[in-house]
């Protein structure tokens, strides 16, 4: 079992390197390698994907959709692109992007490869939670790896049976006599399962809600007594399974992750014990929104409509031109609300973020359906990308917080 302070312990200077500790956050990290890892300065992290990165992500999207296999090539491109450094602070080698830049980048990636976009979005979401809630030691050890592209992060909150609002978790975390934790449970719909190097796992760590957690403090998402843990992908107690066959987002490696007899030191805990619900409640205030994925998909559909109109000489018809303008207006409107969420300048930025997901995901589904009609028979061929866009667009509404739950969160204060 790993010691409680295995992340920060100074392992004695011996001639032979210390064996990897599989229970540490980074099992291969020793004091020496930590120093060595800082030696090579990285190129500045970009805020937007380059045309080359977009074209490489576009090239693998179709094949991953056909096979339904985890898109390893897309992850390799994301790692090399340094986009994984997007929201890491500059002090730790990142780009220090705000939510406007993040949403804009995610939109661009989604316009060529929506599966890669949700992997990037979840990575950045976990990174932001570490920035906000991590200890200085966690910042030092983890953020540099996330920024350098060595580590892809995934978010393992959902479970079959937990509900969209994650109140009913069956994954339990118990204290061990050495001050660490023992986790046991099964997660479902984890994006980047089996590809990620670190997972942010949500577990129920206290059976009874603490006395302070009255129902009036219910944030509508998550429950009292839940705790976050950062668990490395190499941990022998963490078992990914990508056998889930999704309708859309098929390259995203969205699958199951079990934690069985999973012992971690207390240093793997992110945030105080039992406070995950309040961390979750603050997420929407960040302005990062899955609406950006929806806007990217809607833009891709609009581009497909223009390609079709140009190829078939349809611009000569006023009705066609006006139809394309109507579609473009919808895309531009959704983009505006996503940008407003990122700016966080509204009276309640958290509400704007929820509205942005509702608005943009509905727009994407509508625009894709309209473009599919516009394409006529060409769009009815199975291999036309519009069909992938439709299946991908549907997923955004189902991703957390689901659109139904967004409506519940917006309306919760009216019912108190
Ligand atoms: C492509 C994809 C990728 C995903 N990636 C991740 C990931 O990386 N990490 C992760 O943790 N999860 C992920 N999820 C899961 C997602 O976050 C959902 O929260 C989870 O799937 C909810 O499950 P459900 O809709 O089956 O819940 P259920 O509770 O079974 O919901 C059934 C229906 O009831 C509605 N509903 C349930 N509870 C409420 C409520 N309290 N108020 C209003 N409506 C409610 C839901 O919106 C849904 O329409 C992903 C899902 C998809 C489709």
UniProtKB/TrEMBL annotation:
<feature type="domain" description="Acyl-CoA dehydrogenase/oxidase N-terminal">
    <location>
        <begin position="57"/>
        <end position="149"/>
    </location>
</feature>
<dbReference type="GO" id="GO:0016491">
    <property type="term" value="F:oxidoreductase activity"/>
</dbReference>
<dbReference type="InterPro" id="IPR009075">
    <property type="entry name" value="AcylCo_DH/oxidase_C"/>
</dbReference>
<comment type="similarity">
    <text>Belongs to the acyl-CoA dehydrogenase family.</text>
</comment>
<dbReference type="InterPro" id="IPR036250">
    <property type="entry name" value="AcylCo_DH-like_C"/>
</dbReference>
<dbReference type="Pfam" id="PF02771">
    <property type="entry name" value="Acyl-CoA_dh_N"/>
</dbReference>
<protein>
    <submittedName>
        <fullName>Acyl-CoA dehydrogenase family protein</fullName>
        <ecNumber>1.-.-.-</ecNumber>
    </submittedName>
</protein>
<dbReference type="InterPro" id="IPR013786">
    <property type="entry name" value="AcylCoA_DH/ox_N"/>
</dbReference>
<keyword id="KW-0560">Oxidoreductase</keyword>
<feature type="compositionally biased region" description="Low complexity">
    <location>
        <begin position="32"/>
        <end position="42"/>
    </location>
</feature>
<dbReference type="Pfam" id="PF02770">
    <property type="entry name" value="Acyl-CoA_dh_M"/>
</dbReference>
<dbReference type="InterPro" id="IPR009100">
    <property type="entry name" value="AcylCoA_DH/oxidase_NM_dom_sf"/>
</dbReference>
<feature type="domain" description="Acyl-CoA oxidase/dehydrogenase middle">
    <location>
        <begin position="155"/>
        <end position="258"/>
    </location>
</feature>
<feature type="domain" description="Acyl-CoA dehydrogenase/oxidase C-terminal">
    <location>
        <begin position="287"/>
        <end position="405"/>
    </location>
</feature>
<feature type="region of interest" description="Disordered">
    <location>
        <begin position="1"/>
        <end position="44"/>
    </location>
</feature>
<dbReference type="InterPro" id="IPR037069">
    <property type="entry name" value="AcylCoA_DH/ox_N_sf"/>
</dbReference>
<keyword id="KW-0285">Flavoprotein</keyword>
<keyword id="KW-0274">FAD</keyword>
<dbReference type="InterPro" id="IPR046373">
    <property type="entry name" value="Acyl-CoA_Oxase/DH_mid-dom_sf"/>
</dbReference>
<dbReference type="InterPro" id="IPR006091">
    <property type="entry name" value="Acyl-CoA_Oxase/DH_mid-dom"/>
</dbReference>
<dbReference type="Pfam" id="PF00441">
    <property type="entry name" value="Acyl-CoA_dh_1"/>
</dbReference>
């Amino acid at each position: 079992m790993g010691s409680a302070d295995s992340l920060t312990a100074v392992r004695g200077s011996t001639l032979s390197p210390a064996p990897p500790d599989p229970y540490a956050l980074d099992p291969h990290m020793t004091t020496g390698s930590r120093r060595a890892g800082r030696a090579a300065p990285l190129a500045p992290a970009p805020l937007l994907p380059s045309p080359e990165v977009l074209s490489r992500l576009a090239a693998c999207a179709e094949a991953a959709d056909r096979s339904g296999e985890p898109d390893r090539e897309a992850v390799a491109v994301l790692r090399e692109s340094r986009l994984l450094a997007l929201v890491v602070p500059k002090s730790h080698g990142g780009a220090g992007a705000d939510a406007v830049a993040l949403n804009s980048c995610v939109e661009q990636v989604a316009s060529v490869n929506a599966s890669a976009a949700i992997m990037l979005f979840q990575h950045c979401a976990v990174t932001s939670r570490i920035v906000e809630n991590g200890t200085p030691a966690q910042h030092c050890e983890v953020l540099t790896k996330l920024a350098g592209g060595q580590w892809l992060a995934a978010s393992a909150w959902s479970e079959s049976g937990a509900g969209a609002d994650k109140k009913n978790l069956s994954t339990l975390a118990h204290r061990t006599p050495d001050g660490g934790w023992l986790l046991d449970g099964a997660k479902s719909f984890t994006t980047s399962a089996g590809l990620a190097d670190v997972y942010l796992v949500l577990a129920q760590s206290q059976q009874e809600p603490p006395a302070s957690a009255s129902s009036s403090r219910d944030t509508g998402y998550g429950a009292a007594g839940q705790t976050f843990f950062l668990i490395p992908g190499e941990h022998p107690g963490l078992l990914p399974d990508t056998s889930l066959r999704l309708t859309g987002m098929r390259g995203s490696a969205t699958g199951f992750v079990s934690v069985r007899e999973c012992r971690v030191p207390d240093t793997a805990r992110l945030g105080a014990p039992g406070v995950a619900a309040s961390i979750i409640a603050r997420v929407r205030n960040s302005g990062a929104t899955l609406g950006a994925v929806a806007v990217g998909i809607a833009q891709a559909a609009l581009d497909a409509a223009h390609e079709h109109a140009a190829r078939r000489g349809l611009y000569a018809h006023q009705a066609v031109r006006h139809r394309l303008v109507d579609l473009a207006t919808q895309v531009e409107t959704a983009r505006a609300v996503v940008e407003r969420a990122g700016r966080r300048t509204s009276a309640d930025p958290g509400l704007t973020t929820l509205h942005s997901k509702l608005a943009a995901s509905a727009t994407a589904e509508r625009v894709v359906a309209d473009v599919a009609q516009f394409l006529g028979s060409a769009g009815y061929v199975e291999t036309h990308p519009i069909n992938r866009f439709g299946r991908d667009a549907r997923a955004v509404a189902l991703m957390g917080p689901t659109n139904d739950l967004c409506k519940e969160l917006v309306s919760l204060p009216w019912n108190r």
